Amino acid sequence: MKIPFYIVDVFAEKKYAGNQLAVFLDAENLSDTEMQKIAREINFAESTFITKLSPENNAAEIRIFTPEYEMKFAGHPIIGTSWVLMNKIFENQSQKITLTVPIGEIPVNQSGDLVWLQAAQPEFLDTFLAEDFLTFSNLKSTDFDGKFPIQEVTTGSAFVIVPLQNIKALENLILDQGKMNEWLHTHCKTSHRALYFYCLEDGKLISRMLCIEDNQLKEDAATGSASTCLQAFLLKYYAPQIEVINHQGDFINRPSQIYFKGKLSENHFDIRIGGKTQFVAKGEWEV
């Protein structure tokens, strides 16, 4: 059996930047095991599998796999898959579609060369002490931005949001994999465990996402799901309305730009992230 696939770079201002994504069509007959094996073979941060396509409704159902496990929600796979559907698959060139993922329906729209998704309402989980991070990182107490808490937040996938004082602390960050992994398993409320460090310096938002996967410490070039959590965090603690670009991937030579446009009103979070997608390749995958 052969199935078509596309490769794109997501949250990328140009090719060979941002976060890579493989999008597999006609995946309704693939087993969970086959999807996982394909995702591991291609070895991008995530791959998506379109299991149901409804062009007449501008809708699709997808599943998202890392090389190690399936995710309930992830931002760059949704943005990238939507771009492929709107620009390469759907003949009506619709600017609005709906993607269904395990957490539910995600509205997506395209405006110019930006594709935007609207995230689910956030849940704010436990807060932590900066001292915890001194045990598994090279950070000092003065590296943390004390104006904000350190908190686990989820909009479908959970991340511990860690505010730092400046770019220098972010750039020089070193983590002890074993101790970090132990801390994550001890303290995180969900099965998805990751750290999202950020700083706001001179009005520029810069971030780094680090997690343990395949028993390795990994850094992501652009993390849409973490960005929705960070946007919720900033709306709650920084300002009730925000429009800014989140720069991620700079320190691993995959510069990414994730556009934020959000608003908090009467305890309702309107969280939208957007980004550009660059077409790289298409082909057939033999299953």
UniProtKB/TrEMBL annotation:
Lineage: superkingdom: Bacteria
Database matches in InterPro entries: Phenazine_PhzF-like
Protein name: PhzF family phenazine biosynthesis protein
Taxonomic path: Bacteria, Pseudomonadati, Bacteroidota, Flavobacteriia, Flavobacteriales
Family note: Belongs to the PhzF family.
One Pfam family here: PhzC-PhzF
SUPFAM superfamilies reported for this sequence: Diaminopimelate epimerase-like (SSF54506)
Gene3D superfamilies, sorted: Diaminopimelate Epimerase, Chain A, domain 1 (3.10.310.10)
Organism: Flavobacterium xylosi
